[in-house]
């Protein structure tokens, strides 16, 4: 992977916090002169097991406390008096990105009026919320206009009859967004900046070729699975499913196995499909009450796992295949992607080549092997985005302004190329 020339703009280390379903993790690193991340320390906490469910924070007070404690531990590890600011990846079930359009047919060709474009934008907002009353439009960004078949990236100035407006919308569920607002009220004292988790993964995993030609990323977490499709570095599509590796463990538990042993069995001996099981072994584990044991065959285990995976990924892969003609590779990442045979299993679902994404090329040679594992990709990508944020904002200190971060997100969206949104129209 080619390196970007990045310079350290702050004497303070980069710190990223990830609030996951199984634990909260914090990582401190610094960018060296060669553009490699040198990891200074990693800390984690599972003090509150149900702190995050399906990508949403349940208790913001506990979240704020855990973040503060992890920052103290990291400060001791990296020999800083205090670490007060972090970069946070945002994701989960609350956010999706959709394409939407509106059109008007002027009987007599005439110049396009601003009020007409405003009406079309409002119509697009209403289309989304009428289609699904449970969601709110977080942001609506113009992709392009068409006037009598001719494409414009800004307001057309010539006369025409048929005007079409194409937008990309960031939408979220109202009930979950309310929780998110509450979180933003309580936690931002710790936040220097935030990024969208799929963009962090793109930063960590994509090669320069991917950033030019496009790629897809399947992020398989404990309780959520997210498919994101990119053309260049910009979104074409994203979707979140509220299922993940934890659901597989719970399914194994239904065989009578105690949950901790079900999780261990999945990770050590589980396969993504029965066809991939190297030998039909048997495993004996304590039952749920620890009063007896349960015997499970390897083929039975793989069949159960495959059924759970099918429920999670089949719809996502069907959506992905719509973009197969211009997406050259699918990267898989996240803790649940580490299941034996996952790469081969997913390859049966799509014609797009499937590869494990690797963030290791961004890391210095002295990085522990554990941190090169897929479940650290999001943290590494967030640190890289954090470095970029500091480079672009050298004068911003102790940044807590949520509105400023939202403006930056909107600006990035407004920079989408014409090629990207032509793809929306074709699909």
Textual characterization of the structure:
It is a single chain. With 427 residues, the protein is α+β, with helices and mostly antiparallel strands. It has a domain at 95-174 and 416-426: Dna Ligase, domain 1 (2-Layer Sandwich). It has helices spanning 60-78, 114-131, 174-186, 197-205, 208-213, 245-253, 259-269, 298-320, 342-347, 377-392, 402-414, 418-426; strands at 14-19, 24-31, 37-45, 52-53, 56-57, 86-90, 95-111, 135-147, 150-152, 159-173, 191-196, 215-220, 225-231, 234-241, 282-286, 293-297, 330-333, 354-356. Strands 14-13-12-17-18 form a five-stranded mixed β-sheet, sandwiched between helices. β8 and β9 form a beta hairpin. The longest helix has 23 residues, at 298-320. The protein starts with 13 loop residues before the first strand and ends with a helix. The model is unreliable at 1-10, 397-407 and 416-422 (pLDDT under 50).
Helix-strand pattern: EEEEEHEEHEEEHEHHEEEHHEEHEHEHHH
**Mean pLDDT, nearest integer?**
80
Which fold name corresponds to the CATH topology of the domain at 95-174 and 416-426? Answer: Dna Ligase, domain 1
- How many helices does DSSP assign? 12
Q: CATH class of the domain at 95-174 and 416-426, anyone?
A: Alpha Beta
Instruction: Give helix % range.
Output: 25-40%
Major beta sheet summary: 5 strands, mixed
Give the N-to-C terminal Cα separation: 31 Å
What amount of the residues lies in strands?
25-35%
Under the CATH scheme, the architecture of the domain at 95-174 and 416-426 is: 2-Layer Sandwich
Structural class: alpha+beta
Q: What is the CA-based Rg, rounded? A: 23 Å
The tally of beta strands, per DSSP, is 18
- Net shape: globular
Strand order of the largest sheet: 14-13-12-17-18
Q: Low-confidence segments, ≥5 residues, pLDDT <50?
A: 1-10, 397-407, 416-422
């Amino acid at each position: 992977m080619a390196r970007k020339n990045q310079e350290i703009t702050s004497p303070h280390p980069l710190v990223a916090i990830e609030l996951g379903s199984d634990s909260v993790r914090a990582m401190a690193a610094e960018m060296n002169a060669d553009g490699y991340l040198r990891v200074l320390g990693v800390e984690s906490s599972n003090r509150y097991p149900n702190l995050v469910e399906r990508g949403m924070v349940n208790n913001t007070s506990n979240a704020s406390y855990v973040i503060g404690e992890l920052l103290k531990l990291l400060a001791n590890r990296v020999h800083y008096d205090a670490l007060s600011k972090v970069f946070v990846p945002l994701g989960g079930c609350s956010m999706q990105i959709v394409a939407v359009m509106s059109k008007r047919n002027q009987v007599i060709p005439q110049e396009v009026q601003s009020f007409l474009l405003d009406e079309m934008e409002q119509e697009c907002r209403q289309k989304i919320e009428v289609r699904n009353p449970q969601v709110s439009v977080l942001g609506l960004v113009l992709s392009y206009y068409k006037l009598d078949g001719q494409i414009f990236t800004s307001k057309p100035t010539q006369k025409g009859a048929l005007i079409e407006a194409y937008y990309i919308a960031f939408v979220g569920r109202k009930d979950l967004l309310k929780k998110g607002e509450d979180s933003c009220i309580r936690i931002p004292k710790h936040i220097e900046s935030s990024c969208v988790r799929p963009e962090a993964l793109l930063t960590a995993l994509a090669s320069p070729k991917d950033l030019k030609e496009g790629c897809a990323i399947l992020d398989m977490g404990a309780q959520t699975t997210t498919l994101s499709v990119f053309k260049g570095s910009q979104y074409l599509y994203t979707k979140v499913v509220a299922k993940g590796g934890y659901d597989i463990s719970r399914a194994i538990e239904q065989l009578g196995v105690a949950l901790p042993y079900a999780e261990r069995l999945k990770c050590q001996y589980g396969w993504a499909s029965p066809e991939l099981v190297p030998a039909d072994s048997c495993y004996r584990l304590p039952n749920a009450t620890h009063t007896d044991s349960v015997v499970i065959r390897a083929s039975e285990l793989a069949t159960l796992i495959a059924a759970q995976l099918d429920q999670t990924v089949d719809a996502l892969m069907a959506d992905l295949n719509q973009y197969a003609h211009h997406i050259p590779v699918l990267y898989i990442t996240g803790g649940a992607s580490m299941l034996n045979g996952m790469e081969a299993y997913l390859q049966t679902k799509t014609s797009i080549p499937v590869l494990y994404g690797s963030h290791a090329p961004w890391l210095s040679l002295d990085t522990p092997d554990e941190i090169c594992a897929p479940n650290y990709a999001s943290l590494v990508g967030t640190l890289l985005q954090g470095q970029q944020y500091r480079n672009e904002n050298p004068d911003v200190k102790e940044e807590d302004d949520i509105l400023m971060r939202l403006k930056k997100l909107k600006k990035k969206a407004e920079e989408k190329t014409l090629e990207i949104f032509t793809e929306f129209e074709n699909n």
